[in-house]
Amino acid sequence: MAVLEIVTVPHPVLRRKAEPIRDEEFGPELERLAHDMIETMRAAPGVGLAAPQVNISKRLIVVEYEDEEEGIPHQLYAVANPRIVRVSPRRVWGVEGCLSIPGMLGEVERAYAITVVGRTPLGQPLRLDLEGWVARIFQHEIDHLNGILFTDRARRVWRASEEEEALTAV
Ligand SMILES: [Zn+2]
After folding, report:
1. Distance between Cα 97 and ligand 1 center (Å)
2. Which of 4, 34, 142, 160 could cysteine-pair with 121, CB 3.0–4.6 Å?
3. How many CB atoms lie within 10 A of CB 4?
4. Active-site choice (141, 162, 163, 164)
5. Average pLDDT of span 137-166
6. The predicted structure's pLDDT at residue 165
7. For the residues 156-161, what does the mean pLDDT come to?
8. Is 141 a catalytic residue?
């Protein structure tokens, strides 16, 4: 496994619409890329990463989250071609950061709950009902696949303290 280089703004790959993973691309090689992205996310450290953030313009994301205090167990996802098929009417504001926009935080409104469909890197179909922070991370990562950054959606953006940044980087 390898830690990949994370690109930052204004790298143009971050503004490109990423390519769908084609049927013949599913398999061990795509799984290896997902593992490298997980290593990269953990090394950053962050709670999510999209392939364009490592300069690969493909529709692949990884998300890892847990919150012992809130009783949310450890969850790790690698999803190819993720697509949001349901959003809750309830929307919530929350503070986000981004590994590709170091040092900045912003307040972003997201759907509280979503359903995402996609496939694992080996090609198994996935359907995920997500809520709260995990749903927010998925929306942030799927935005990356469409060339959208959290600063496009934020109502307020500010410079983070290091402590704040570690909690929110995606
Ligand atoms: Zn990001």
Report:
1. 7
2. 34
3. 19
4. 141
5. 91
6. 63
7. 90
8. yes
